[in-house]
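Following up on my earlier thread - several people asked me to post the actual chain instead of describing it. Fair enough. Here it is, all 197 residues.
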Amino acid sequence: MPKAKTKKFAAMKRMISMKDQRIKEKDRSKAQEKKKKDPSALKETEVPKYASCLFFQYNTQLGPPYHVLVDTNFINFSIKAKLDIVQSMMDCLYAKCIPYITDCVMAEIEKLGMKYRVALRIAKDPRFERLPCTHAGTYADDCLVQRVTQHKCYILATVDRDLKRRVRKIPGVPIMYISKHRYNIERMPDDYGAPRF
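Reply from S.P.:
Thanks for posting it. Predicted structure:
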């Protein structure tokens, strides 16, 4: 009994190269000529511009009242640790703190559904300032990183490791996080706030 031919999966027709000799010369793609680099030409490299508020790594724009950008998981972990956000921030920094919440973070909390309705109620607290977002999409991490890069007056409150790693590369931005059932802060100038643990 003859074997039935099986068709190869995802088999594609072979395409002829545009440089092939069988193609007419006018239609054939031309080989790119490599430009020789001039050794006497000046080399231009772009150096990233640093904000004028920075004195080396020291951020001069930080000072009471502190503006704290809050992330989604920071609110969730605060609820788990039974911490009042505004009061715990004040205990950490020994000064007035204004928590800010962006539209992206608000949308992220709303997407989490009924399980996180307590977090949504806390986020809608009148003590929280709302920051409108003008960019496309609702990915909160990118939004927070962009905001912190543009304006160096914020402290970022997050528990997310990836976001912390991204923000550590930006000079002059302190990070607030939760450890041992209290708020802690890293990369803050030593003359501000509570002692570090």
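The chain has a mean pLDDT of 85. That should answer part of your original question.
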